[in-house]
Specification:
- This protein is an alpha/beta fold and 306 residues long.
- It has two domains: 103 residues, translation initiation factor eif-2b, domain 1 (Four Helix Bundle (Hemerythrin (Met), subunit A)), CATH 1.20.120; 194 residues, Translation initiation factor eif-2b, domain 2 (Rossmann fold).
- Helix content is 44%, strand content 13%.
- It has ten helices and ten strands.
- The strands form two sheets. It has a seven-stranded mixed sheet, with helices on both faces.
- It binds ribulose-1,5-diphosphate.
- The site of ribulose-1,5-diphosphate (RUB) has 19 residues, from helix 2, helix 6 and strand 6.
């Protein structure tokens, strides 16, 4: 179960920062539920190993780390296998409920930033950003959307499917068209894999180029992010690891001229200075507010679990 889920996250059958976090929490819950023995130390060891396997399945989105670690809170205090099992199941269910609720709250709060006549640009496939756009449409607002293709995985095709099924007026563009259409765009909505303590955004590669184009054109950029995408590790200055994936995702290795290397990072970093607001389940906040929320809400207690 744990290795199955980890494999699905690695091969992107399950993808998107919120979904992988919920899948990680669910895999921990299922492991706990199915643990057959009565050896407490062995159970705790198995939970720790499962957490490590899940977290290693994709390195960039801290949502996965937070989702998996949330299931382990209080495990050291329970002193029977059944007690630990109950804690993990309760924690996992609570995290999943919180995560789903956060995406819905972001849809409501994000929709408030969308007005009649807007031309929105979104990059890749973020369920949080798409939720806000669909909610604004559901409220009867009239606007249109540009969605990037997002090479190499083309998650933009999922975005245009989701938006068009909801009845949103959407135009698919390849990534390199972003700067050309930016003069027509009024707002950019993107998702997040990780937000650092100083308010920088780690999201699908290309987001920083979108942000640069938006900044240059004085177009507002909003990040739709649940607060469990705030990275407690960055409080102590740790860097976010940017995942690099296989060459074959870009070109069949046999088609590559000899001596040519391929660089395939799948996320990049957008500085806080290019972000107008972060739409969270707690409300709209400036990137500078992230540090305070991280310390007060996620807090050093989460950080201290490591
Ligand atoms: C997806 C991506 C999304 C964020 C947020 O990358 O970068 O913008 O994960 O998604 P990948 P959500 O396809 O490589 O996972 O809002 O759904 O959590």
């Amino acid at each position: 179960m744990v290795t199955d889920t980890a494999q699905k996250i690695t091969d992107m059958t399950i993808r998107g920062a919120g979904r992988i976090a919920r899948a990680g929490a669910a895999a921990m819950r299922d492991y706990a539920r199915a643990y057959p023995g009565d050896d407490l130390e062995d159970f705790r060891k198995g939970l720790k190993e499962s957490a490590d396997i899940l977290i290693a399945s994709r390195p960039t989105a801290v949502s996965l780390w937070n989702g998996v670690h949330a299931t382990l809170l209080g495990v050291e205090d329970a002193d029977t296998v059944d007690g630990v099992r109950a804690v993990v199941i309760r924690n996992a269910d609570a995290f999943i409920t919180r995560s789903e609720g956060a995406v819905k709250a972001i849809a409501r709060i994000g929709a408030n930033r969308i007005e009649d006549g807007d031309v929105i640009l979104t990059h890749c496939n973020s369920s949080a950003a798409i939720g806000a756009i669909i909610e604004a449409h559901r409220q009867g607002k009239r606007f249109r959307v540009y969605a990037t293709e997002s090479r190499p995985w083309r998650q933009g095709l999922l975005t245009v499917r989701d938006l068009s099924e909801a009845g949103v007026d959407v135009t698919l563009i390849i990534d390199s068209v972003v700067n050309s259409v930016m003069k027509h765009v009024t707002k950019v909505f993107v998702g997040a894999d990780t937000i650092t303590s100083h308010g920088a955004l780690i999201n699908k590669v290309g987001t920083s180029m979108v942000a640069l184009a938006a900044h240059e054109a004085r177009v507002q950029l909003y990040v739709c992010s649940e607060t469990y995408k705030f990275s407690p590790m960055t409080l102590s200055g740790e860097m976010v690891k940017i995942e690099e994936r296989e060459v074959s995702e870009i070109i069949a290795p046999g088609d590559l001229p000899e001596g040519v290397r391929v660089f395939n990072p799948v996320f990049d970093c957008t500085p806080a200075s290019h972000i107008d607001g972060i739409i969270t389940e707690l409300g709209l906040m400036a990137p500078a507010a992230v540090y305070g929320v991280m310390v007060s809400q996620l807090g050093y207690s989460v950080f201290g679990e490591e």
